[in-house]
């Protein structure tokens, strides 16, 4: 069956621009997570959604980062006024329930020039 | 807070060699422990897990035992293959005490690059 998909797969943007990253979780999965994989910080948690609510936003690095989830499905991670340190691979994962196995998408590689 | 410390890499082995990648953790409560693998050009995928002390997770010839007394979850394989070349991540997910609710917020180690030569 279809796995977690993310778009775009690659995004190059200029410093100061806004970007939106999209995640389509596995159908029926209620929990959705965003992580970031960067050379300096490794793999780090950003935000967790249960349904359309985000009970844990503790990993968002600054107020330039925001995320939403609609219809209990698609999620969008928005980075405003991008900085070079935002360059990373952004990973999305979903699970059937909050404590279930997480399935990861292929990631979006963001490069800020 | 929670943290995971992994053996520094990269690790380079010959085919059929024995593999150990060390992983230790710091956490409150009773975390679940995981090994994830990222093959070249592919997404992150679960390799194995253990949810309580003394549990052994195993998959594809890899094993790891949850050792609460040493707060460790070392990954082992008796005979590696070229196809095992990948990046391996140790991770934990905290759990609340029984009766509470929990979710799968993962804390990862820094990753270990494994290269296996023929």
The poorly predicted ranges of chain B are none
Largest sheet of chain A: 7 strands, mixed
Largest sheet, strands/sense/barrel of chain B: 6 strands, mixed
Instruction: Provide a count of the helices of chain A.
Output: 0
**Quaternary assembly:** heterodimer
Average pLDDT of chain A: 95
Q: Bin the strand percentage of chain A.
A: over 45%
Q: Helicity of chain A, in percent?
A: under 10%
Task: List SSEs of chain A in N-to-C order.
Answer: EEEEEEEEEEE
Distance between the ends of chain A: 37 Å
Strand content of chain B: over 45%
| SSE succession of chain B | EEEEEEEEEEEE
The rough form of chain A would be described as: globular
Radius of gyration of chain B: 14 Å
Radius of gyration of chain A: 13 Å
Number of strands of chain B: 12
Overall pLDDT score of chain B: 92
Give the topology, please:
The complex is a heterodimer of chains A (113) and B (118).
Chain A: E1 5-7, E2 10-13, E3 19-24, E4 31-38, E5 42-50, E6 53-56, E7 65-69, E8 75-79, E9 88-95, E10 103-104, E11 108-112
Parallel strand pairs in A: 2-11
Antiparallel strand pairs in A: 1-3, 3-8, 4-5, 4-9, 5-6, 7-8, 9-10, 9-11
Chain B: E1 3-6, E2 11-14, E3 19-21, E4 23-26, E5 32-38, E6 44-50, E7 56-59, E8 62-65, E9 75-77, E10 86-93, E11 107-108, E12 112-117
Parallel strand pairs in B: 2-12
Antiparallel strand pairs in B: 1-4, 3-9, 5-6, 5-10, 7-8, 8-9, 10-11, 10-12
